[in-house]
């Protein structure tokens, strides 16, 4: 059996459990703004994935499924039930894997600025180039080039504090964590069939200005189990750029579906 990694976490509030998974080169502080808005009315748990934040790094060569199983082990150990699980971008890939393998523990889930599609051949080559770059030059330069692509043009020009915060969080990522995540994302499977299954409610959030994952790659499923939220002014980082809108979308989805 693949090694399970114990995840660092933070929790606050009471009510329906909302579990939040950060994206690539992020950590639990990615969710600080959203957490502050949700925790007065919900039980909010934020995680650090392997090699990110305060969670230890392990040798690269693991998969998105391995990362999802870390989350499942955490859920089991904490005895959490009827969870509403949301993942930002890479966190969305992990969320979809959990929804595939462990639907019974979820009340609903939401990939945020994410997609069920696998990497294109070009994206796979870019991941491999990223692995070489981090191996040769370290994390700082990689993150410095990554961060500006994550936000909208408006954020890039006017919200220097957001850029600074994303950079500070990103460079804390362990090199093994960056390389391991790049390889896991490169090798991930097509998970479209997971959100096409209507057993569980799904929330899809996309940013109209997202240059990493466009709304067309997020909104690829329809049905009465699907709720879509397009935040026109957000880039890939609605959780920083438009936290009010992202938090509102999550809260109303959770409140609506916890009544069922
Ligand atoms: C992320 O923010 O997690 C990444 O942009 C996801 C990806 O590179 O596919």
SSE map:
Layout: E1 9-12, E2 17-21, H1 32-38, E3 43-47, H2 64-78, E4 83-88, H3 90-101, E5 106-112, H4 121-137, H5 139-150, H6 153-158, H7 160-171, H8 175-186, H9 192-196, E6 202-207, H10 215-218, E7 226-231, H11 238-241, H12 243-258
The structure holds D-malate (MLT).
Describe the 3D structure.
This protein is α/β, with parallel strands linked by helices. The chain has helices at residues 32-38, 64-78, 90-101, 121-137, 139-150, 153-158, 160-171, 175-186, 192-196, 215-218, 238-241, 243-258, and strands at residues 9-12, 17-21, 43-47, 83-88, 106-112, 202-207, 226-231. It has a seven-stranded mixed beta sheet. Helix 10 (215-218) links the parallel strand 6 and strand 7 (226-231). Helix 1 packs across helix 12 (243-258), helix 4 runs antiparallel to helix 8 (175-186) and helix 5 packs antiparallel against helix 7 (160-171). The model has no long low-confidence stretch (mean pLDDT 97). D-malate binds next to loops.
Which features characterize this protein?
single chain; 260 residues; alpha/beta; seven-stranded mixed β-sheet; 12 helices; 7 strands; 47% helix; globular; binds D-malate
- The secondary-structure element order is EEHEHEHEHHHHHHEHEHH
Q: Major sheet: size, sense and barrel closure?
A: 7 strands, mixed
Give the overall shape: globular
Number of helices: 12
Q: What distance separates the N and C termini?
A: 36 Å
Task: Please summarize what this structure is.
The chain is an alpha/beta fold.
């Amino acid at each position: 059996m693949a090694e399970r990694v114990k995840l660092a976490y933070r929790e606050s509030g009471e009510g329906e459990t909302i579990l939040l998974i950060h994206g690539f080169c992020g950590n639990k502080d990615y969710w600080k703004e959203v957490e502050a808005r949700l925790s007065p009315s919900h039980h909010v748990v934020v995680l650090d994935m392997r090699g990110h934040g305060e969670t230890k790094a392990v040798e690269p060569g693991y998969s998105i499924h391995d990362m999802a199983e870390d989350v499942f082990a955490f859920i089991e150990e904490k005895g959490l039930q009827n969870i509403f699980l949301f993942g930002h971008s890479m966190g969305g890939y992990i969320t979809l894997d959990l929804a595939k393998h462990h639907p019974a523990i979820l009340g609903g889930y939401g990939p945020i600025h994410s997609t069920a599609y696998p990497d294109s051949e070009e994206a796979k080559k870019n991941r491999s180039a990223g692995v070489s770059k981090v191996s040769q030059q370290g994390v700082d330069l990689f993150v410095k080039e990554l961060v500006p692509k994550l936000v909208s043009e408006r954020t890039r020009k006017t919200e220097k504090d957001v850029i600074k915060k994303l950079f500070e969080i990103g460079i804390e990522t362990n090199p093994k964590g960056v390389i391991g995540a790049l390889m896991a994302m490169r090798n991930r499977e097509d998970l479209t069939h997971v959100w096409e299954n209507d057993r569980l409610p799904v929330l899809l959030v996309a940013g109209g200005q997202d240059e990493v994952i466009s709304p067309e790659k997020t909104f690829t499923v329809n049905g009465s189990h699907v709720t879509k939220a397009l935040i026109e002014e957000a880039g890939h980082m609605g959780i920083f750029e438009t936290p009010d809108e992202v938090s509102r979308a999550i809260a109303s989805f959770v409140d609506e579906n916890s009544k069922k």
